[in-house]
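Is this the right way to post structure tokens for a design question? Let me know if I should format differently. Anyway, here goes:
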């Protein structure tokens, strides 16, 4: 069943996914020479602990495209809690309060809020990368 965009609320996860997909599509249409993004520091450089961990805009570009392909195709890998993620500091604060046998509605709302915030952040990252690319090639918005 397709839902018209006008009927979706601003905080709709579906609308957030559509916005992200559209932002990455715009980024792909704008960035004609992705190699120009190599060695250009991303906005997240200040948040990186070491220069070795810092990603350039090219890495960010590839990550955003890969995530969009996963979002659009729905081919996400099932969660496997036996795998250890290197550099993962464990569950964030807030997860401690939620128990797996807690109310399913509370768990769903918690995870939807987190997913929504990640999608908004990725959308803004994609838009920022597009704007930086336009600055690099000398086109003003």
């Amino acid at each position: 069943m397709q839902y018209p965009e006008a009927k979706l609320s601003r905080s709709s996860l579906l609308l957030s996914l559509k916005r992200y997909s559209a932002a990455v599509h715009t980024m792909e249409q704008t960035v004609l020479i992705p190699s120009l993004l190599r060695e250009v520091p991303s906005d997240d450089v200040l948040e990186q602990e070491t220069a070795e961990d810092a990603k350039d805009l090219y890495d960010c570009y590839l990550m955003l495209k890969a995530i969009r392909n996963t979002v659009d195709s729905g081919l996400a890998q099932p969660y496997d809690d036996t795998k250890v993620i290197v550099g993962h500091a464990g569950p964030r604060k807030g997860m401690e309060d939620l128990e797996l046998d807690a109310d399913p509605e509370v768990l769903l709302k918690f995870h939807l809020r987190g997913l929504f915030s990640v999608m908004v952040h990725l959308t803004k990252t994609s838009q920022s990368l597009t704007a930086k690319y336009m600055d690099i090639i000398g086109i003003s918005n």
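Format looks fine. Someone answered above. Worth noting: Confidence is low (pLDDT under 50) at residues 80-91. Residues 104-137 form the longest helix (34 residues).
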